[in-house]
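Quiz preparation item.
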């Protein structure tokens, strides 16, 4: 008799866990849909996407028409990724998601959202899914348009399949990582102003100040041959030397100094120096996974109804 009662309790517990997971998944999709349409119909989205699309197209045209030698589609894509995607793409994620939590906290709508029979982790996942989908969708469409235009300018030469897929995949990973980092900041920040300033500060650190990190590491490690004394020129030579490629693994994507750049470079034939071939891909995937876990847990612990 006791065994039968215990069996029913275990079955009931399994059913309740399953129902909770099912409810959380459904709730996360509802939150994601809400965030998706809110982000997609935002005026900020229209302005930024237009500027981003024009930047990609104009840079691609300039890189092809004014190059000293004939470009391949893979080379043009690598340059677009290294200069436009890596600099403007994260800004789109930051600007569109900086108030995803702070705005709801100040407007008291977060209290209403958390009052529903839905876990905070499900709410955080829904917010991440909605915002990143809204950001990634136009970026992917613009990337496809840019690839088409590049091919047209190069007499309909299309990039190889691995470069095409890799370019899209690594771009999505980079955008999602920055959206997650901004979600963490938005959860911790008390106001939307603090959230966006902190997000832009993070972007500046990885895109500009990271070059200073590379230069300081070079100074500490000792001089190298053929490196100019001028710091700005020296940084360019240091990056080209590949000696400090391992530092890029600690940066998801920065101007000439991140794992995103290493992965794009590997797709077009270059190889990292002093690190295993799998390290750049592992780095950008790990950045995404850790950012996702931290974002969900920070929201779960810091946000109260």
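Solution:
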């Amino acid at each position: 008799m006791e065994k039968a009662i215990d069996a029913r309790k275990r079955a009931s517990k399994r059913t309740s866990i399953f129902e909770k997971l099912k409810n959380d998944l459904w709730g996360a999709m509802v939150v994601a849909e809400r965030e998706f349409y809110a982000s997609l119909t935002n005026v900020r989205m229209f302005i930024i996407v237009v500027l981003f699309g024009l930047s990609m197209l104009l840079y691609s045209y300039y890189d092809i028409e004014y190059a000293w030698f004939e470009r391949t589609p893979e080379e043009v894509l690598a340059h677009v990724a290294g200069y436009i995607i890596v600099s403007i793409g994260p800004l789109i994620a930051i600007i569109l998601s900086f108030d995803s939590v702070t705005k709801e906290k100040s407007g008291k709508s977060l209290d209403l959202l958390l009052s529903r029979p839905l876990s905070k982790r499900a709410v955080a996942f829904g917010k991440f899914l909605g915002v990143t989908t809204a950001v990634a969708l136009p970026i992917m469409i613009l990337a496809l348009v840019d690839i088409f235009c590049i091919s047209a300018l190069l007499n309909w030469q299309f990039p190889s399949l691995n470069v095409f897929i890799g370019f899209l995949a690594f771009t999505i990973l980079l955008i999602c990582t920055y959206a997650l980092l901004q979600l963490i900041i938005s959860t911790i920040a008390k106001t939307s102003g603090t959230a966006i300033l902190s997000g832009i500060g993070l972007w500046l650190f990885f895109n500009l100040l990271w070059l200073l990190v590379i230069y300081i590491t070079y100074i500490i490690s000792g001089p190298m041959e053929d490196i100019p004394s001028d710091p700005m020129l020296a940084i360019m030579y240091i990056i080209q030397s590949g000696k400090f490629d391992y530092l890029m693994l600690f940066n998801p994507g920065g101007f000439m100094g991140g794992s995103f750049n290493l992965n794009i470079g590997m797709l077009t034939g270059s190889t990292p120096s002093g690190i295993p071939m799998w390290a750049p891909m592992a780095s950008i995937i790990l950045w995404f996974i850790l950012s996702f876990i931290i974002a969900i847990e920070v929201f779960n612990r810091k946000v109260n109804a």
